[in-house]
Amino acid sequence: MERISETDLILNDDGSIYHLNLLPEDISDTIILVGDPDRVPKVSRFFDTIEFKKGKREFITHTGRIGSKRLTVISTGIGTDNIDIVLNELDALVNIDLRTRSIHPQLRSIDIIRIGTSGAVQPDIPIDSLLISSGAFGFDVLMHFYEHQLNEKDGQLLQEFHKHTTHSHLNLKPYYAPAGKKLLKQLGNIASHGITLTAPGFYSPQGRQVRAKSSTPNLLSLLSSFKSSNGSLITNLEMETAGIYGLAACLGHQALSFNVILANRSTNQFSNNPLNVMDHFIELILNTIAKT
């Protein structure tokens, strides 16, 4: 079996994977991703037991249990560039023999669940609510570097969005990736669903104007006005979901993204109590995961 080179798969001196600094036994088959490293203990404090803690750079990992369910929570930092690192290294931990640098003959599929914050682009979506991404368009470029395929229905949705954005002066080539069907069925009944737009930045790429002049002043109206032939709308903006969905599908894993809506960009409202709102939904999501 072909050996993966030292430059394609970099390991630390102790044999752990390069950026995450983890060994295969350090993680569970259910991975919770959060952006903020400070959010990792806010998730793991709901665990009944914590068996493992480790950190390197922005990648903090806690593994423990709720009842008999073993869970791992990892911080990714911000953006799909970090998602590229995290998902490839998680896959290596479960599907590559790090000693021989060979791919296991039988591949494992893990569950990857994002819990993140987001801003709504439709005026009727309330702040302090929870939204599940049934799929995500990516304005970033990550998935243009990987071979990935869409079914006919999702391919048509992407074509319609391409056509919609072509009418603007935006020089973009968005991609689309759907949620994992198994996780959407298992966990998708605790919140409403929508299509997420993953942006490559926080300010102008999400329609914000501070001092630097934006070349996309009508971005929010462009996104909120999209409606597919089957009635699907873009509901919210964030910075990781499309990359998580796309790479998870490429690698044979399940992925689902929960978005805690702390802002409504259409009405210019922001949550008055974001920390308590986040804690409430973290506990709700963890209790739901623990029952699966």
UniProtKB/TrEMBL annotation:
Residues 31-263 form the Nucleoside phosphorylase domain. It comes from the Bacteria. One of its GO terms (molecular function) is uridine phosphorylase activity. Pfam families: PNP_UDP_1. Its EC number is 2.4.2.3. Keywords: Glycosyltransferase, Transferase. It catalyses: uridine + phosphate = alpha-D-ribose 1-phosphate + uracil. This is Uridine phosphorylase. It comes from Mucilaginibacter lappiensis. The lineage of its organism: Bacteria, Pseudomonadati, Bacteroidota, Sphingobacteriia, Sphingobacteriales.
